[in-house]
Specification:
Blueprint: H1 3-23, H2 27-34, H3 36-55, H4 57-61, H5 67-72, E1 83-87, E2 91-96, E3 101-111, E4 117-121, E5 126-133, E6 138-140, E7 147-149, E8 155-163, E9 166-174, E10 180-188, E11 200-210, H6 216-221, E12 225-229, E13 234-236, E14 243-247, E15 251-257, E16 261-280, E17 287-298, E18 307-315, H7 318-322, H8 345-363, H9 369-383, H10 385-400, H11 402-411, H12 418-432, H13 440-456, E19 479-487, E20 491-495, H14 496-515, H15 525-542, H16 547-570, H17 573-586, H18 594-619
Antiparallel strand pairs: 1-2, 2-3, 3-4, 5-6, 5-11, 7-8, 8-9, 9-10, 10-18, 11-17, 12-13, 12-15, 14-16, 15-16, 16-17, 16-18, 19-20
Helix pairs in contact: 1-15, 8-9, 8-13, 9-16, 10-13, 11-12, 12-18, 14-15, 14-16
C-alpha cells in the first residue's frame, strides 16, 4: 500500500469521524443502546432510588415533622380530593386539592398517536411537594387538602388553612391563548406560625415523561432535562444515560423536555441549591425519561411579598417560546427558545434568522409540508449556487489540464520522485492560474447553510403528524418495510426515504469522483471503494431519523446530482482550456506561493541529503 493510499484512508477516516460526531447519536447514547439489555436492571434500581429519595427526603435529610406541625393544619389533614379544571383556547389544566398541585395537562391543538387530545401527564405521572418550616420542624403540602377559593374558568386559589386568620394560598392563573400558567405562593397570618428567618420554600418535582412519538430512538435523543443558569446560558443533562447533578449556581428555570413538548418550571426569584435527575426508560414502557428536581426558592413567611413562579406546559415551537422574551432586558430573558435544538452556534443563527422565517413564510401559503420542504430546499440550493459554481469550475480547470498532468506522472513514475512530481504539478497550476484549493473555500462557505436545514427539520413541530406520499408522519421514520426481527444498527424497519437518500448519495459520489478525476493522483481502488461505502453507511445511520429529514437530504442530494450533470454538459472544456492557455500567455511571472516555495525547499533539501549519502557510500 503506497503513501497516497494510506493518506486517503486517513482522510476518509477523519471524514467519517467528523460526520459521525455531527450526525450520529452521541457516544453515550450509542453505548446506552448497545448495552441496554445488560444495564436495564441497574437503571431501574437508580430510578427506584431516586423515587425513594424524593419521597423520603423529609425523613432522611431534614428535621422530622413535629406534632405541632401536624396540628398546625390539622383540619386540612383529612378531606375529599377534588379536581379543579382551568382552560383557555389552547390549554386545559387540572389541579388537585390534595397537595394543591397540577395533576394533568392537555394541549388542545395537538393529538397523541391515537388521535386523542395530547396529554402531557396525568396525576399518577407527576408529583409536586412544597416544604415549609415552622419552629418545630417542617411540613410538606403533598398530604394536605386545600380549599377552593374564587374559582373562574381561567384562575383559582387553592388555600391551605391553618385557622380562621391564617393560611397559605396557591394562586393559579392561565393567560389568554397562552401555554403559560402564572403561579404565586403567599402567606397570610402565618408570621407567628412559620420561621421568620427561613425565607425559602423547598420544592420537589418529578414527572414520568411519556413517549409521544412513534420513534423511540430519535425522541429519546431529543428528550433531555434542561436548566438555565440565572442570567447565563442554558445547559442540560445527558440524554443517553442516567445522571444526577447538584447545581451550585442559581437557576431561572428547569425544564422536562420531550422531542416536541416540554414542562417548564420558572422562578422569578430564582431556584437555588437544585439537584436534578434524569433516568432513561425502557423501550416499550410507554415512557422516555423519568425526570426529577429538588430545589428551593424565595418565600416570605410574613406574607408581605409573594413567591412568583410560572409553568410552561406546551410545544417546543421556537417563536412561541421566543415570544416570552419580547420587551425584556437581556438579563431578564428566559430564553426558553433554547429548548428547540437548531444546531451548534453558527448554524443555529442561520436557522434563527433565515430558515425559520422562510419556513413560516412558505407555511403561510397553506402549502402541504412536503411542498414547503421541497421549496425550502430549492431556495437553499439557489442561495449556495454561486459557491457550487466556483467549486465546479475549480475542478473543471484541473480536469482540462489532465493530459499535462498525465505527462508529469509518466515523467516521474518512481515513488521517490513524488516530491519532484508534486512540485512540477503545482508549478503547472501556477502557470495557468489554477489553485487546487480553489474549490475548498466555497464548499466550506456553503456547508453551514446546508447543515442549517439538516438541523432544523427534526425540531420543526410543524412537521409532526403531517403526511406526505407514503410517509404518514414527517417527524418520524417512514416504515416502508417492517421486519419481524431487529437488524443490528438498522432496526426492525426500512425507511424508503432513507433508501432513496442513500441511492442519490451513491450517484452523487460517482459524479463527484468523475468531476475530480484530474490525473493528479494515481487510481486508488481502495479509496474509491471507501467513497462508495460511506453513502451506504448513511442507510444505517439515518434509517430511524425523521422521514422529513431523509426527504430533505434526498431532495438536496438529487438537486446536487442534477446540477452536476447540467454543469458538465453545458461546459465547453475545449473553450475552457483555450481560455486558460490565453491567460497563461498573458499572465505575468508571479512569485511562487508559500506552498510552492516550501515544496521547492523540501525538494532541494532532499536532493542535498541524497548527495551526502551517495558521497558517504562512495568513500566506503
Amino acid at each position: 500500500m503506497d503513501k497516497n493510499t494510506i493518506t486517503a484512508f486517513v482522510l476518509i477516516a477523519l471524514l467519517l469521524i467528523g460526520f459521525s460526531y455531527f450526525s450520529r447519536p452521541s457516544a453515550e447514547q450509542i453505548a446506552a443502546v448497545q448495552h441496554y439489555n445488560d444495564s436495564i436492571a441497574a437503571v431501574y434500581q437508580q430510578e427506584e432510588a431516586a423515587r425513594e429519595k424524593l419521597s423520603a427526603a423529609l425523613a432522611n435529610e431534614k428535621p422530622q415533622a413535629s406534632s405541632d406541625s401536624t396540628a398546625l393544619f390539622f383540619a386540612a389533614s383529612e378531606g375529599t380530593e377534588q379536581i379543579v379544571t382551568l382552560g383557555n383556547s389552547v390549554l386545559e389544566l387540572k389541579l388537585t386539592t390534595l397537595g394543591g398541585r397540577p395533576s394533568s395537562v392537555i394541549l388542545k391543538d395537538y393529538n397523541d398517536q391515537q388521535g386523542n387530545p395530547l396529554e402531557l401527564f396525568n396525576q399518577k405521572e407527576t408529583e409536586f411537594n412544597f416544604n415549609f418550616y415552622n419552629r418545630e420542624g417542617i411540613f410538606g403540602t403533598e398530604n394536605y387538602y386545600f380549599d377552593i377559593v374564587d374559582p373562574t374558568p381561567t384562575s383559582v386559589t387553592l388555600r391551605l388553612v391553618a385557622d380562621s386568620t391564617s393560611h397559605i394560598d396557591f394562586n393559579y392563573a392561565l393567560q389568554p391563548e397562552s401555554y403559560l400558567v402564572d403561579f404565586t405562593i403567599q402567606a397570610t397570618g402565618m408570621a407567628d406560625k412559620l420561621l421568620a428567618n427561613t425565607r425559602h420554600v423547598e420544592i420537589e418535582w418529578s414527572q414520568q415523561s411519556r413517549q409521544q412519538e412513534k420513534g423511540f430512538t430519535y425522541e429519546n435523543r431529543l428528550s433531555k432535562l434542561y436548566y438555565k443558569n440565572a442570567g447565563n446560558s442554558t445547559d442540560n443533562l445527558s440524554e443517553g444515560k442516567a445522571e444526577e447533578k447538584s447545581l451550585a449556581q442559581n437557576l431561572d428555570w428547569i425544564g422536562f423536555k420531550n422531542q416536541f413538548f416540554s414542562s417548564v418550571f420558572i422562578a422569578d426569584q430564582d431556584f437555588r441549591q437544585a439537584t436534578v435527575t434524569s433516568l432513561p426508560q425502557q423501550r416499550e414502557s410507554g415512557y422516555i425519561k423519568f425526570y426529577a428536581a429538588e430545589m428551593n426558592t424565595f418565600f416570605d413567611p410574613t406574607g408581605e411579598e409573594a413567591t412568583s413562579l410560572h409553568f410552561y406546559f406546551g410545544p417546543n415551537h421556537y417563536k412561541t417560546l421566543k415570544s416570552f422574551d419580547k420587551g425584556k432586558a437581556r438579563a431578564d430573558r428566559w430564553e426558553l427558545d433554547n429548548l428547540v435544538y437548531l444546531g451548534w452556534p453558527g448554524v443555529r443563527w442561520i436557522n434563527k434568522i433565515i430558515t425559520i422565517n422562510v419556513f413560516d413564510w412558505l407555511s403561510s401559503w397553506g402549502l402541504h409540508m412536503g411542498l414547503v420542504l421541497l421549496i425550502l430546499t430549492i431556495l437553499v440550493k439557489i442561495a449556495v449556487f454561486p459557491a457550487t459554481w466556483k467549486t465546479y469550475m475549480s475542478s473543471a480547470k484541473m480536469r482540462v489540464l489532465k493530459p499535462q498532468i498525465d505527462q508529469i506522472n509518466q515523467k516521474y513514475p518512481k515513488q521517490e520522485d513524488a516530491m519532484k512530481k508534486q512540485q512540477e504539478v503545482m508549478g503547472l497550476y501556477s502557470q495557468y492560474g489554477v489553485s487546487p484549493m480553489g474549490g475548498c473555500l466555497p464548499m466550506l462557505l456553503q456547508f453551514p447553510v446546508l447543515m442549517a436545514l439538516f438541523m432544523f427539520v427534526p425540531s420543526a413541530i410543524e412537521l409532526r403528524q403531517q403526511s406526505f406520499l407514503w410517509a404518514d408522519d414527517l417527524s418520524t421514520y417512514d416504515a416502508f418495510i417492517t421486519f419481524p426481527f431487529s437488524i443490528p444498527f438498522l432496526g426492525s424497519h426500512l425507511s424508503l426515504f432513507c433508501v432513496l437518500m442513500t441511492v442519490t448519495n451513491i450517484l452523487n459520489t460517482r459524479y463527484t469522483m468523475a468531476q475530480q478525476d484530474n490525473g493528479a493522483q494515481p487510481q486508488m481502488a481502495a479509496m474509491k471503494w471507501m467513497m462508495y461505502f460511506m453513502p451506504v453507511m448513511f442507510l444505517f445511520i439515518l434509517n430511524e431519523f425523521p422521514s422529513g429529514l431523509n426527504y430533505y437530504y434526498f431532495i438536496s442530494t438529487l438537486i446536487s446530482v442534477i446540477t452536476m450533470i447540467v454543469l458538465r454538459r453545458t461546459t465547453d472544456e475545449n473553450k475552457l482550456l483555450a481560455e486558460l492557455e490565453a491567460r497563461r500567455a498573458t499572465r505575468p511571472q508571479k512569485k511562487k506561493s508559500g506552498f510552492a516555495a516550501r515544496l521547492e525547499a523540501m525538494q532541494k533539501e532532499q536532493e542535498r541529503l541524497a548527495q551526502e549519502r551517495n558521497k558517504q557510500q562512495g568513500k566506503k
